[in-house]
Amino acid sequence: MKTFINLRISGAGLDLQEITTQLPIHPANTGKKGDVIIGQWSFEENTTLQEDFWLGEHRSDEKLKLEENLEHFMMKLKPAAAYLRTLAEKHHVTIWVSAYPENEQANIHISLATINILSEIGATLDCSMAFLKDFYEGNY
After folding, report:
1. Which of 5, 61, 64, 86 has its CA at 20 to 30 Å from residue 99's CA atom?
2. H helices within the chain, ranges in order?
3. Helix (H, G, I), strand (E, B), or coil: what is residue 82?
4. CA triplet 90, 88, 17: central angle to 5 degrees?
5. pTM
6. For residues 70 and 1, what is the distance between their CA atoms, to the nearest angstrom?
7. Structure confidence by residue, pLDDT tens digits, 84-136
8. How high is the pLDDT of residue 45?
9. SS3 (DSSP) at 63
10. Cα separation of 128 and 122, whole Å?
11. What is the mean pLDDT of the segment spanning 2-17?
12. Where are the chain's structural domains?
């Protein structure tokens, strides 16, 4: 199953440089309110950001299960748990999991270690699943 795992931080007045300095991962993308994001796919329109955001991603190892990749990512974030919790008190801190199974039945198992770190960080978990064919056709 192809997976993407991201840390998404959004809200008003984010200090993007401070976040980058404080976290043990690098941003894949950042933006400030009012920036225009150009759609990457033919079905996507350009979007004007309504709030600031910082997005860090985990490069998933396709040999591992989704839950193993998720747990590895959470373990990377654990040293910054206190900082992320302070961010979560004022902003949206979300672990964003996108999974693209090859067949119609799939399962996302969340380990207790991952749940504990999510709780420690104060983050929410957002999981989505779509078939790659649907994603590329814009039908997800």
Report:
1. 86
2. 16-22, 66-77, 81-90, 112-121, 132-137
3. helix
4. 80
5. 0.84
6. 13
7. 999 999 999 999 998 887 766 677 889 999 999 999 999 999 988 877 665 56
8. 80
9. coil
10. 20
11. 94
12. 2-137
Here the tokens at position 128 are 């989505």
The residue whose two tokens read 């990457």 is 40
| Residues ≥6 apart with Cβ < 8 Å to 17 | none
- For residues 41 and 63, the model is more confident at 63
- Residue 121 token pair: 């960080």
How far, in Å, CA of 38 to CA of 21, rounded?
Answer: 27
pLDDT of residue 9: 97
Rounded Cα distance, 84 and 105, in Å: 34
How far the first Cα of the chain sits from its last, in Å, is: 16
The Cα–Cα gap between 81 and 75 comes to 10
For residue 60, what pLDDT is reported?
87
